[in-house]
Amino acid sequence: ATMPHAIEVSSLSKSYADGFQALKSVDLTIRDGEIFALLGPNGAGKTTLINAICGIVTPTAGSITVSGYDNQKDYRQARALIGLVPQELTTEAFETVWSTVSFSRGLFGKPRDDGHLERVLRDLSLWNKRNNKLITLSGGMKRRVLIAKALSHEPRILFLDEPTAGVDVELRRDMWEVVRELRDTGVTIVLTTHYIEEAEQMADRVGVINEGELILIEEKNELMQKLGQKQIILDLN
Ligand code: ATP
């Protein structure tokens, strides 16, 4: 038997309660071990798509599997394989770095002191700050804490929703490096971005989404050329 892909999305549509159709029959395969970027302007449907894959948004039609597990019927198995770093930097002011990641790991019924969390915090340069309250950390460090939290239960696939939105150039490069290092540990990465440059820098493949439609999936080196050939003009900022 062949290994199932990290993610298989087929004919996925989503209409919100007000009737707005945020996704229109999206088909997408994410390969094991790759960095995949979803590129598109504001409101294109990027967050809706990753929230649907993570089981937070219920699709109107279509199906999603995570390493072969149906993300609705086999939700627990699918969920255990997924880590999500949301767009908003929501952290508990008075919690420490350690309490945040260890609570999160505990939710998945995993031991807190088996060395996994220490490895994650060291990899993200957070180990020395493990006893600091989150409110005292810089924006860049808070982002790292949210990544550590998402990795706390040893997911195989990590979703990062606009990891560099509102981030200065230096911190952006820093995030790119963090993502590449994670990939080198074998984690499949899916991220969303508004920036063509960022998609090309970070990803192995790029999917372009516009008004709820996945209009192009390309290896990163062919992206600019293909956008030009198809005369796709994105209103990116
Ligand atoms: P951004 O880059 O601004 O984060 P996005 O590509 O992630 O945008 P989504 O957040 O998926 O886009 O939103 C897609 C569309 O769906 C937008 O027009 C948005 O207003 C709409 N939308 C999102 N959530 C809801 C909701 N709960 N009810 C109705 N419409 C919604």
What does this structure look like?
The chain has 237 residues and is of the alpha/beta class. It is built from eight helices and ten strands. The strands form two sheets. A six-stranded mixed β-sheet has the order 6-7-8-3-9-10, with helices on both faces. Helix 3 (97-107) packs parallel to helix 5. Adenosine-5'-triphosphate (ATP) binds next to helix 1. Belongs to the ABC transporter superfamily. Keywords: ATP-binding, Nucleotide-binding, Transport. GO terms for molecular function: ATP binding; ATP hydrolysis activity.
Shape: globular
Computed over alpha carbons, the radius of gyration is 18 Å
Query: Which residue ranges are poorly predicted, with pLDDT under 50 across at least 5 consecutive positions?
Result: none
Q: Indicate the structural class.
A: alpha/beta
Oligomer: single chain
**What distance lies between the first and last C-alpha atoms, to the nearest angstrom?**
44 Å
Strand order of the largest sheet: 6-7-8-3-9-10
- Tally of DSSP helical segments: 8
Give the strand tally. 10
List the secondary-structure elements in sequence, H or E. Answer: EEEHEEHEHHHEHEHEEH
Beta fraction: 15-25%
Helix content: 25-40%
Main sheet specs = 6 strands, mixed
